[in-house]
Structure formats: C-alpha cells, structure tokens
Amino acid sequence: MQVNSISTSTASSSAGSAGLIAQLQEQLKELTQQLKDVATSSLDAKAKQQQEQLLLAEIAAIQAQIAAIQSQRQQDQLSKASASQSNVKRTQAASNQALGSQVDEYI
Predict the structure, then answer these.
(1) Taking the model in full, what pTM does it have?
(2) CA atoms within 13 A on the CB side of 23
(3) Per-residue model confidence as pLDDT tens digits over 73-99
C-alpha cells in the first residue's frame, strides 16, 4: 500500500489542518483517477480486481485521515469556545466582586 503517511498530529492548527486536508484531497483525486485507469486497462480480471482493492483501501485510509483531522479541528474549536466562556465568567465574577465592594449600603 502506498498511502502517504501524513500525521494527524500536525493538524492542531486550523491553517495547518486546512492545508493538510487539501493535500489529502489531491491524493484522493489521483487515486480516483488511477482507479478509473485500472478499469480500462489491459490487465487480466484477477490483476484488475487486486489493483482495485488496493486503490480502494488507499482511498479509505485517506478518507479516514481527513475525518480524523476534521474531528480534531472540531474538538479544538470546542475547547477554545469552552475556555473563552470560562474566561468571560471569571471576568464577570471578578467585576461583580469589585463592584460589590464599591457600593455603599445605607440602612
């Protein structure tokens, strides 16, 4: 199998993952073309079947890599949103405490 080993760990940044996905999509196009070429080749039936299975396995592996990168990107976005919400809540709580210490109470 000639699947290019592209690590999904480099997909942590959004820009990096977008470029990586584009690269993988290009590989998918090439493999799809190779699959079409096999269908029209002069290979015997058994050789065609083996070549098709190999290409389909490579396509599936690349699709799985793309899915993993997209999933990681989604997790990163959720983590960032959660962290941002926590920071807003902390800021509001600190602001409320500071405001409470400045208010005079008259009874």
Answers:
(1) 0.61
(2) 16
(3) 899 888 887 777 776 667 776 666 655
